Amino acid sequence: MSQSVSRALHLLVQLGNGPANLDQLAESTGVHKTTVLRLLRTLSDERFTFRDNSNQYHLGSRIFELAAQATDQREVRRIASPHLVAFNREYGRTTHLAAMEGGDVVYIDKLESHDQIRMYSRIGLRANLNSTAVAKVILADLPDSELRPIVDSMDFSARTANTITTPERYLDEIRMVREQGWAHDQEENEPSVNCIGVPIRGASGRVVAAVSVSVPDVVLSYERVLDLLEPLQAVGARISRDCGYRAQP
Amino acid sequence: MSQSVSRALHLLVQLGNGPANLDQLAESTGVHKTTVLRLLRTLSDERFTFRDNSNQYHLGSRIFELAAQATDQREVRRIASPHLVAFNREYGRTTHLAAMEGGDVVYIDKLESHDQIRMYSRIGLRANLNSTAVAKVILADLPDSELRPIVDSMDFSARTANTITTPERYLDEIRMVREQGWAHDQEENEPSVNCIGVPIRGASGRVVAAVSVSVPDVVLSYERVLDLLEPLQAVGARISRDCGYRAQP
DNA sequence: TGCACCGTTGCGCTGTATGCAACGGTGATT
DNA sequence: AATCACCGTTGCATACAGCGCAACGGTGCA
Fold this sequence. Notes:
Chains A, B: GO terms for molecular function: DNA binding; DNA-binding transcription factor activity. By secondary structure, the first copy, chain A, is of the alpha+beta class. Chain A contains 9 helices and 8 strands.
């Protein structure tokens, strides 16, 4: 299909066999030396390859990064499941697991509360970016350069009286989430429902998902919900650990 | 530098954040949907990405493969070292560790024999492809499609009376190495020196290096050198295991 | 049933990627 | 010390690959 991309990928595959210099790569891929140089420059710009002192090219750090991220993504749901079940059994509250998919935050697991109350959410459904704790937690991990465009194109329609409806207030909120390491949703997404969420980190160190508990205030006041923060953070830490995350000392 | 390559790489980075569909990727990278489709096709052809049933794109298996290979390469020397030292201490023979770099097989470690005899080889030096056991072992792991061009452009100059000097005989030899899992060099590289080599495999399952012992026949006859095969294979297996290789049952 | 969404294709133009030829620095060889 | 070979690098002109556009068609939701 796409010649230059195809050639660049072949270079990566070739480097999988071991480091190599320009000429060797040019010969083994059948591409002109000049072209190989330029392709490798682009690859190196993005850290897919790098060059050592003796002009040997190697596979770069980005490869490891991507592999770690991909592993995390594939595994979170499976790894999180038993922890979520245990948490749900003990506290009996509606528990969500959500992850980034494309530009959306999507619920990838849900455990119902033990009481009658059911919330409007479903596995596979998208979480509102401006009003849910899981979204805040996940977006808070993105670098500003990625966060900005998302916030700019975000739908800020009010779902309740408390919903954050301006980019400015939202960015303030994100700043707070970054500082405290967890997020809340005080009746911002559904009237009379409070929620807190914490991040799950993977081997790459990046946030790969978020867990949250949601409780109607007829069951527990917001202050009582905060009593769940510590156990929730503990669950988050356990899942992160199982996903290969090692907190730096 | 190279627009389409750069865009393709950005797609991979983007997918590191989680699966996404065409439109989402088009928006987050600022590239036309049509173009994204075509780039993803090329990426998918090489298994850098794949599409699931619901048209979501994910990072593909090639990423893991490359990451595993790169890790292996970076680590072999370090991991192998203590095992080689132990082997060298016990048997006192010249021991080499070699790996593929570019189109060449290069000595990346060497331990001298305990007797006076020194061999013509040095860390960083290239091993002759047609006459050394390490090269045979490493090349034997390549698929025929990669092996062929290498053999075709190989230098078959005779170093001794026993050196393999034709592609046909070399391919026969490789076939034998594949079957028995190790290689020999019966005075093919240096007169009066016999050598046997075994592969080191990494987490990816591929051969990432080779270990060999070389002994002048004034010290040991070829038959006596074969007594070292079993311990050498044991060393190879230990290093492979430490490199993350798991033999399939 | 209608509509909206999203992946897909054919086409024609533009700009990018390519190969060539030549330069220059480095390291090995005699 | 001098020469040579090797290899990375650059400028340039050409060709063609990659691109965006517009339109199609299938699927799922309202």
